[in-house]
TrEMBL record:
Belongs to the YkuD family. It holds the Pfam family PG_binding_1. Gene3D superfamilies: L,D-transpeptidase catalytic domain-like (2.40.440.10), PGBD-like superfamily/PGBD (1.10.101.10). Residues 1-22 form the signal peptide. This is Murein L,D-transpeptidase YcbB/YkuD.
Length: 441
């Protein structure tokens, strides 16, 4: 079943030996395939084809340029099911199953590494492709029937994209940089990562509410959950390492349309003052005004930008296209002064490492999330939301039903369709002694 995702990355990959992604740990599931692959018990492709006509078979002896290299082929057609919430007792059970499988891989020597070298891509013939094939087979992303030739064909490309999706990377099918780093994380480290997150998920899988919002910081992702099912999932941008998004549990109380942005003192000191030293027109260009706490507006030219004088004033950005909050802010009063919001910088959602904020969370397709949050109000629709945003009017709307929101730190989890996910330990909280961040912040 294909489930529509609202994240910025299209969820496209393939499971070669079990495209139906059975909902169990039996031989037809991804866990089952992984167990069989790791122990050398993968069935012959002919018999597998007889059991399931949708299975893509592959003759390893003919892995040459004559094989299919059409990226639009069915090898790239699989879509992950996105309905299962990350925080649930079911997720905890799935993590335990994944640990068992990965321990079996470790007992058999683990998986090898892929040497550094040229960018590996479809159509390339290189000795490192054989190592890549072995690595992808070991983790169940590529069928053992694919063989270990030096040819990078569309079967390998689809397996790489699947691997990238499981690790929160842009699924471009290219092996270099972040993808190479993630491929070479030892299985023993992944086992400890799963164990650490099993504890986290179990501790947060109680009664979270009938409707709630969950921000997974390492995944830079937001889930809106209703009745145990993900209603929508959103790509996000979260706090960078030196300005971390906090762990919290609060309730969303109101939505601000076309909001003013009152610049936090920390950002005035760390960002605004240095920018004004470089460009005295910065505040004017970005429609940021300076006020005393009595409400008197001050000319930026009268402020000493070579000191911290500006911290003593209130800097306020007018609503509009350049407003750092975009057109919407989702408010849940908290001691960290963080919130969810829109952003004019939409290109950030397409990056691998989305850790750029000062602690607040920027949400892609935020209007869909707001539409869901306002459903209990009964008098709001997506069309009304769009109309208010276009009007430019600053408006606060109180939720008739306050919605719980949780900021969590989950770097590894598994779903019932057998897919094991990993994300970078951006704040170094897993205690593994190995940097798992896919790229520098």
């Amino acid at each position: 079943m294909t489930i529509r995702s609202v994240s910025g990355i299209a969820l496209c990959a393939v499971l070669f030996a079990a495209p139906a992604m059975a909902q169990s740990s039996g031989s037809g599931s991804w866990f089952g395939l992984l167990r069989a692959s790791a122990s050398g018990q993968v069935a012959q492709s002919v018999s597998a084809r007889d059991q399931d006509p949708s299975i893509i078979t592959f003759d390893a002896r003919s892995a040459e340029w004559s094989d299919r290299f059409d990226p639009s082929s069915q090898t790239l057609s699989f879509t992950f099911d996105t309905r299962q919430p990350t925080l649930s007792a079911l997720t905890a059970d799935n993590i335990q199953r994944a640990i068992d499988v990965y321990m079996g891989i470790a007992a058999r020597g683990g998986w090898g590494t892929v040497p550094d070298g040229p960018v590996l891509r479809v159509g390339l013939s290189h000795k490192n492709v054989a190592a890549l094939r072995q690595r992808l087979i070991a983790s169940g992303d590529l069928s053992a029937n694919a063989g270990v030739s030096n040819t990078f064909d569309t079967y390998v490309e689809a397996a790489v994209r699947r691997f990238q999706m499981r690790h929160g990377l842009v699924p471009d099918g290219l092996v270099h940089d972040q993808t190479l780093v993630e491929l070479n994380v030892p299985v023993e480290v992944r086992i400890e990562q799963l164990r650490t997150n099993l504890v986290r998920v179990r501790s947060m899988s109680g009664d979270l509410g009938e409707r709630y919002v969950m921000v997974n910081i390492p995944a830079a992702e937001v889930e809106a959950v209703e009745n145990g099912v993900v209603a929508s999932r959103h790509t996000a941008v979260v706090g960078r390492e030196d300005r971390q998004s906090p762990l919290l549990a609060k309730k969303i109380q109101y939505i601000s349309f076309n909001p003013f942005w009152t610049v936090p003192k920390s950002i005035i000191q760390k960002d605004i003052i240095p920018k004004m030293r470089e460009d005295p027109t910065y505040l004017q260009r970005y429609k940021i005004r300076i006020f005393t706490w009595r409400g008197e507006e001050i000319d930026p030219a009268n402020v000493d930008w070579n000191s911290n004088e500006a911290v003593d004033y209130m800097l306020k950005q007018d609503p509009g296209d350049q407003n750092s909050l975009g057109s919407i802010r989702i408010n849940f009063p908290n001691e960290h002064a963080v919130y969810l919001h829109d952003t004019p910088q939409q290109t950030l959602f397409g990056q691998n490492a989305r850790f750029h904020s000062s602690g607040c969370v920027r949400v892609q397709n935020v209007r869909q999330l707001v539409d869901w949050l306002l459903q209990p109000n009964g008098d709001w629709s997506r069309a009304k939301i769009d109309t208010v945003v276009r009007s430019g009017e600053t408006l606060d709307v109180t939720l008739k039903r306050q919605t719980p929101i949780y900021f969590a730190y989950i770097t590894a989890w598994a779903t019932s369709d057998g897919v094991v996910h990993f994300r970078p330990d951006v704040y170094n909280r897993d205690g593994l002694g190995v940097p798992l961040a896919a790229s520098s912040i």
